[in-house]
Amino acid sequence: MAQSSHAIKKSVTIDADVLSALDPERTANLSATVNESLRLVAVLDKERRLVESWEAEQGRPFTDEELRPYIELILTAEVRNGVRTRSASPSAKAS
Amino acid sequence: MAGPRGRRRRLHDITVVATVDTGWVVAAEENVTAARRLIAAFAHLGRMLVVPPIVVVEARQRSASLGAVDDILAQLEGEPHTPADGRRASDLLREAGKQAPAQGILPSTRIHTIGTADALVAAMAERLGGIVYTADPQHMEWLRDAGAQITVQPGSRLSARHNGRSPSA
User: Fold this and answer.
1) pLDDT per residue over B56-70, tens digit each?
2) What pLDDT does residue B129 have?
3) Cα B165 from chain centroid?
4) β-strands B77-78, B48-51: how paired?
5) What is the mean pLDDT of residues B84-113?
6) Nearest Cα to B84, choosing from B123, B141, B139?
């Protein structure tokens, strides 16, 4: 999310089918797209490492029973947000 | 492609991003087990939980133990405020103030009660997709009523007084 002031140049190979499946605005600035994508991967990796460290600390993984209420909370917020966004969009108001 | 307020598409266009306010962080500090489970659930779903700088300031000011609150803050992704956030927060506060007399409240009182920090959180949440987690929804609801395009998610499962609703560790 946050922008870094330090950047390094790397040569990478991207599968053609992946590249062609991207929206044009993403390929227009491929470096930005790669940065955004890797930033997301980095965040998810950090989250995973955190969870693994907590699970190691408690000597067992989180159970489905423990996570279920929180997953429901997150998904409920997303559904409510989606409904709000849709009802606020001009197309929804026009219909 | 320009997104909201002229920005390029960012991570919140790829995955769901939720913003937390100061009350959420303080509640998380008081109920670490619940906070860890919520963050684990976010990781499980591949979502992001972000903390604005103003929340870092407030949470560290309010906390009795800097080590404990820093542990929570370290688990969240940082996201900088922008000048546009500042302008938006100001507009939201002004509008919330205008709405206050209808409820018998002075505009300045309502603006002071909400505070700059929550207005900045609402502005950032709006920019990042709209979801904001809070332990005390009232301020965010006033800002939403003032026009903030946000979905206020009470984080009651983090609150110690509601702790009995979820299994303990």
Assistant:
1) 999 999 988 888 889
2) 93
3) 23
4) parallel
5) 97
6) B123
Mutate to test the interface with B, among A31, A33, A74 (most CBs of B within 10 A): A74
Half-sphere exposure of A87 (CA within 13 A, CB side): 9
The dihedral sign for the CA sequence B14, A30, B78, B91: negative
Of B130, B115, B117, the C-alpha closest to B19 is B130
Alpha helices in B2-152 (DSSP H): 11-14, 22-30, 32-45, 53-62, 66-74, 83-99, 107-127, 138-145
Q: Do A84 and B40 touch (CB under 8 A)?
A: no
3-class SS at B80? coil
Output phi, psi for A38, to 5 deg.
-70, -30
Contact call for residues B25 and B51 (beta carbons, < 8 A):
yes
Q: Which two tokens stand for residue B10?
A: 């960012």
Rounded Cα–Cα distance for residues B24 and B69 (Å): 11
CA distance B49 to B129: 12
Q: How many CB pairs under 8 A join A and B?
A: 106
Residue B80 main-chain phi, psi, to 5 deg: -75, 150
Residue B106 per-residue DSSP state? -
ipTM over 0.85: no
What's the maximum distance between 2 C-alpha atoms anywhere in chain B? 47
Residue with tokens 């849709």: A86
- Residues of A with CB below 8 A from B47's CB? 74
